[in-house]
Amino acid sequence: MTTPPRRILFATGSRADFGLLVPVIEACRDRADLNTLVVAAGAHLLPPAETHREVEARFGLDAVVSMQKPGATGRLTDAEALGVGTAGFARACARIRPDWVVVLGDRIEAFAAASAASVGGIALAHIHGGDRAEGVADEAMRHAITKLAHLHLPATIQSAQRIEQMGEPASRVRPVGSPAADGLDQITPLDNSHFAELGSPELVVLHHPSGLDDQIEASTVRAIAEAVGDRPHLWLAPNADPGTDAVRAAIDALPEHHARTRSDHLPRPTFLALLKRLASSSGALVGNSSAGLIEAAILGLPSVNIGPRQAGRERPPTVIDAAEPTAEAIAEAIKRSQSLGRSRPDHPYGDGRTGPRIAELLARTDPHDPVLLRKRNTY
Q1: Distance between CA 259 and CA 238 in Å, rounded?
Q2: What CA–CA distance (Å, rounded) separates 132 from 310?
Q3: Residues spanned by CATH 3.40.50.2000 within the chain?
Q4: pLDDT tens by residue, 230-241
Q5: Per-residue confidence band for 364, with pLDDT thresholds at 50, 70 and 90
Q6: Do 56 and 40 form a contact (C-beta atoms < 8 A)?
């Protein structure tokens, strides 16, 4: 009797987690013993980017789960969206009947899918658990997903050790590397015409909300703009976390020179090609995105990290932390970043084979094993 392919539901909620999930989904699609299903939720559905279109064009969509309301932001708004999302994912799982649900990271979309799966008795695999990154409520949600998950797929050895310290059995913790590293060795630098369309930047600014007071968020944006000055640069829009309104309003209020050099969304291949191009020159990524500590570092591009959003995350030597969120400190960090060498440093994020490694684990780990599905805290 032939065993039917296992049904793997990938839950993606934003451009950030989708970019990392792509190599994992592709690796699963390459296997005859796995059947991939993709659900887009949350921030993917928000204007103006509406990045669910990219997900559908790449893989098709088996369900859509609406969560946030356009224009509504804030911590309690996110809490309400989390409840809506949990119900939506539960309905999607009841209809699709997956064997595994796979989530990545720490956003409310991942938490909603994880809650629906774990409470609903469906095996849950969690990628990038065990990391430390304060974000807004990121660290608490990431560790909460860890306690819901049945199979842990951390990006680094240090993250795997944290998961075991949380009481999860070592047999369920499989360090696989970060899928962000997959395919980066094949990225070609952005070509001249696309580079010119983006303003031929020397610096790319990607600064997300950090869960701080709106005045502090706005002050940090102004400090970055002052530190960047007249250097050719490109501002990328922040994600949809609570506090994004303050960050976006501060960017909107910048002088015209900054307003001309903005993009609401770059597809991940374009973003990576841009980072690769900057890595071969005197460029840098400025802000507080995890891309500065992971993808940029793997490509050899220095990054200037500002504020507490990435506090606790492992730092390769290409990362320069601004001493404080002031124009003077950020300018000094940018200056230091430009004096760094351009060779690719050692990093803790794996060998670029994370996707196939995860696909193999999903194929050979029985998602219906009652021992796997039973959670027992060790303390």
Answers
A1: 15
A2: 8
A3: 6-183+352-373, 185-337
A4: 999 999 999 888
A5: very high
A6: yes
* pLDDT, tens only, 100-132: 999 999 999 999 999 999 999 999 999 999 998
d(C-alpha 242, C-alpha 227), whole Å: 25
CATH topology of domain 185-337: Rossmann fold (3.40.50)
- For domain 6-183+352-373, give the fold: Rossmann fold (3.40.50)
Lookup: tokens for 46: 């928000």
Residues 6+ apart with CB under 8 A from 119: none
Q: Is the pLDDT of residue 134 over 80?
A: no
Sign of CA dihedral 221, 225, 228, 232: positive
Q: Which residues pair with 34 in a beta bridge?
A: 6
Q: What average pLDDT score do residues 146-160 get?
A: 97
| Rounded Cα distance, 177 and 190, in Å | 26
Question: 245: closest CA among 214, 224, 221?
Answer: 214
Q: Does residue 1 register a pLDDT over 70?
A: no
Handedness of CA 208, 210, 214, 220 (dihedral sign): negative
pLDDT of residue 181: 96
- To 10 degrees, the CA torsion angle through 144, 145, 150, 153? -120
Distance CA 84, CA 233 (A): 39
Q: How far apart (Å, rounded) are the C-alpha atoms in residues 154 and 174? A: 7
32 three-state secondary structure = coil
pLDDT value at 278 more than 80: yes
Mean predicted confidence (pLDDT) in 92-106: 97
- CB atoms < 10 A from the CB of 379, how many? 4
CB burial class (10 A; 0-12, 13-18, 19+) of residue 32? exposed
Sign of CA dihedral 308, 44, 247, 332: positive
* Residue-level pLDDT at 229: 93
- The residue assigned the tokens 């840098």 is 284
